Amino acid sequence: MKRTEVKEALQRTDFGNEINVKGWVRTKRGSKNVAFIALNDGSTINNLQIVVEMNPENDKILDRIHTGAALSVDGTLQESVGSKQNVELLANTIEILGEADPNEYPLQPKKHSLEFLREKAHLRFRTNTFSAIARIRHAMIFAVHKFFNERGFYNIHTPIITGSDAEGAGEMFQVTTLDLENVPKTEEGKVDYKQDFFGKPANLTVSGQLEGELAALALSKIYTFGPTFRAENSNTSRHLAEFWMIEPEMAFYDLDDNMDLAEEMLKYLIQYALDNCMDDLKFLSKRLQDEEKNKKAEERSMELIEKLRFVLENPFARVTYTEAIDILMRSKPNKKKRFQYVIEGWGADLQSEHERYLVEKHFKRPVILTDYPAGIKAFYMKQNEDGKTVRAMDVLFPQIGEIIGGSQREDNYDKLYSRIKALGIPEESMWWYLETRKFGSVPHSGFGLGFERMIQFVTGMGNIRDVIPFPRTPQNLEF
Ligand code: ATP
Ligand code: MN
């Protein structure tokens, strides 16, 4: 018999018909005359209840069925009275595809901590929480492509291995085929990169932006959606060494156009999740509420679905860095030195505690901060007339802090060149980037959305390690 997926089976109403389902046992419980198996195949968060009537043959097979086992069940669809769903399956034949020894299988039908499940990343897809996150993550990937496709953007694959070390966004991972036990040296005693694979040093990319700009200056609107790598040794709940970034880049867009696109995209993704992932969101919402049960009312976060709607319904606050510094200087936690990093004045880099204060306490909605001091931003951002600030924009979200970083790009050759010189970036590694400002340069803008931070926001998960299947963080490369 052809397999019916659980998601479809749960929607059927042709009771009395026989179907086949396959999946993994979540729970088994029994009474004297009948046993109930909750079967899940990942097509939905909901389980199909399999009803097994006791008879000598079924008894034998039931003894071998435990949480985690894989089954193929032929059965008759029937209306359910007892279970959460409207449909259940009265088993006719049960085949065990793969047993799971209850003395060894680590996932028991009880709540496991997220920390425990990180150590069992090979099996954690089989929990409600992680299968819900995986389905939402898929929906968000699809929605990203849909959003840009509907607006005439072209997806560009930018390189993962890069020869430029000037992307300016943190520490890079080096890529080499040299024998590290026996590194070839030049006469001056330096590493002889001529003998390395590319004949020069190579790294994993920290951003596809610079190459993305080259494409935008011909195709007008492009986006990348690829892996990026940062060897920053920060063990936070918002940083990974390997993460996915969405980077649109648009010719003829100024900073206002850029902000409009960022806000539209974030809202589109949230709307898509509400329209397509409601079962999973409801589960995650309940999970969060259970987790926060013991917190004081004022410390509890807004209910997940309410929070998503709230972001949809309110325009983001748009504020300059200078205004934000004023607000922070006057804020209670700054005056009482309750911030870990007290803001001393204009020019300070904002930490996530400051970003979250602005969003959660002051404006009470997402905030786009613009016009940062040049000194704390990358070389490629467009310089303002004031000679001090650049046309940067960071989008700040509740619980997350920075979710997007972007800017209008410097399109004036001389200004870009002097900035590169001033920062000591080797010109010979940037000649191709500079040439785009020599030939047909136009105003253009773009930004980067950290995909996992977006998934954190949509799922309400507190730790970024739980929204990517196999997180890469310092000292952690197991799976
Ligand atoms: P942060 O200050 O939070 O470390 P950043 O300023 O270094 O971030 P950008 O270089 O602006 O980040 O990168 C664009 C986006 O990529 C960020 O807004 C964020 O959403 C995401 N991002 C940056 N670094 C990481 C990381 N290590 N892990 C996951 N996402 C990240
Ligand atoms: Mn940033």
Count the DSSP helices. 14
- Largest sheet at a glance? 8 strands, mixed
Give the CATH superfamily of the largest domain.
Bira Bifunctional Protein, Domain 2
Overall mean pLDDT: 95
- Main CATH class of the largest domain: Alpha Beta
Task: Characterize the overall form.
Answer: globular
Strand order within the widest beta sheet:
6-10-11-16-15-14-13-12
Helix content: 25-40%
- Which ions and ligands are bound to the chains? adenosine-5'-triphosphate, manganese (II) ion
Q: Work out the strand percent.
A: 15-25%
Write up what this structure looks like.
The protein has 479 residues and is α+β, with helices and mostly antiparallel strands. The chain has two domains: 6-108, OB fold (Dihydrolipoamide Acetyltransferase, E2P) (Beta Barrel); 126-171 and 206-316 and 365-466, Bira Bifunctional Protein, Domain 2 (BirA Bifunctional Protein, domain 2), CATH 3.30.930. Helices cover 30% and strands 23% of the residues. The strands form three sheets. It has an eight-stranded mixed β-sheet, sandwiched between helices. A five-stranded mixed β-barrel has the order 1-2-3-5-4. A three-stranded antiparallel β-sheet has the order 7-9-8, with no helix packed on it. The chain is globular, with a radius of gyration of 27 Å. The mean pLDDT is 95. Bound molecules: adenosine-5'-triphosphate and manganese (II) ion.
